[in-house]
Amino acid sequence: MTFKRFLIHLCILLAFILLVFMGIMWWLRSYTNHNQQLTLPDYIGQQFEGSQKDAKEKSFRLVVNDSVHIVGKKGGEIIEQNPKGGAKVKENRKIYVTVTKEIPDEKSLKSLPQLYGRNYARKKKELSSMKIYTKIRNYEHDLGEPDHILKVWYKGKLVADIKGKRSNVSIEIGDTLEFTLSSRNDAEIEVPNLMCRTVAEAKTILDVNELELGDVKTDGDIENLQSARVVYQYPSAQKGVKITSGDAVHITVTQNGINCN
Prior knowledge:
By secondary structure, the chain is an alpha+beta fold. 23% of the residues lie in helices and 34% in strands. It is built from four helices and 17 strands.
């Protein structure tokens, strides 16, 4: 083989190696770009149809994972997505979304768990798992445990209380129930009339009304304090006079009382 032919073969070999190297580099660049990480847009609050088109253009795929009716929101609005907006993902990644429904599903009130007398926080969690939301409407003074359900309201109507659940009531999934809860703290109570009561009777009346017996002053000799009768109290039991639960009522007593017969 002449030196000239050797050079020609060498050039051909080098050209082949160069072409192979360039092909490998092109393939690696193409593969890397195909699997590059992209920033996921935030589709929450947008309509599914438009978001689906946008996702397709950006090499994502939106998949409806769940749907729920929410009062005040039109159908087809994205309210949840996974992964969340801003996450780094590869192209062709499936994005699972929850969208709102135009027509709500319904659940009968009778099928809901027992509500009256139950702890509000626990029932709130339980109803939330059913996609029924809750709101505290007001509080009422009650001698039982605080924050327990006394009344249930739906769309302004009383639907459950101590008498039970009303029949033929359907709750829209995604809607809100309102609750009246029990309260023992800071409740305003009319001052009970303790005049001419024995100390023992006065203490019982105050306990029932969640009030405390304050100072007990004596007027004259007292043989038996528990049987002594109230001749003065503060605050007085005048109409319209109220105190807060837990407050004290102070009394003055005599052995036989004055004008108590």
